[in-house]
Amino acid sequence: MNLRLEGKNALVCGSSQGLGKAIAVRLAEMGANVTLLARNEDTLKITVGELPANSEQKHNFISVDFSEPENAIQNIKSQLPLDKVYHILINNAGGPQPGEINSAEPEHLRQAFNQHIIMSQLLVQLLLPGMKKAGFGRIINVISIGVKQPIENLGVSNTIRAAMASWSKTLSRELAPFGITVNNLLPGHTRTTRLEALIQNRAKSKGVTVEEMEKSMIAEIPVGRFGKPEDIANAAGFLASEEASFITGINLPVDGGFLRTL
What we know:
Structural class: alpha/beta
Radius of gyration: 18 Å
Strand order of the largest sheet: 3-2-1-4-5-6-7
Strand content: 5-15%
Number of helices: 8
Number of domains: 1
CATH topology: Rossmann fold
CATH superfamily: NAD(P)-binding Rossmann-like Domain
């Protein structure tokens, strides 16, 4: 099985920490040249220095804010070499703030739509000519199990992630003839700063301790633990490889069996 990515260039969004960082590390381990994309330049400088690299690999980063997609894409364009082909795009953005959908402000939905749908659309349009020229492309969207089973108190996230999944499925059929696959990763409860905040919010709302809430949430996961960022990264690495050329248009849960749906 060939899981190597030598000679491939990857652009990884939201990659200064959490799931995005873990995916960037995994792609670098597989031999890809990785460009990190995130907001905090200081954190990016540290992260790019932590990426595995051999003498042939070249990693870099671009600091950009996804909240204004049109400005962000112009910033990215100005820093990408004109002749560089990116074979792999990891769309990954921070989750919208928690809360019930019935009380969500329209602005919260607009912000989430911009950061997830519009930004992903612009990035695909930017990189697509190179992927078509190479006859190889991997577009991987990190979304959420909320696509299949809405998560309590994450109303905006459930809504936007579902839209992202529909966008991805549509795109997958359009791009398949060019050797470009489009797939979604659906992380379950995974050890990140966002999960820690979610646990604290749930514990507070239900009047229990953080430890009690964590134990209760783990009890709903058949494998008996929260996910690790590396669990998501391993799935992304496979989908980015040559071996996944016949897999496109899917939602892949990486959730330890949490989902009750097929």
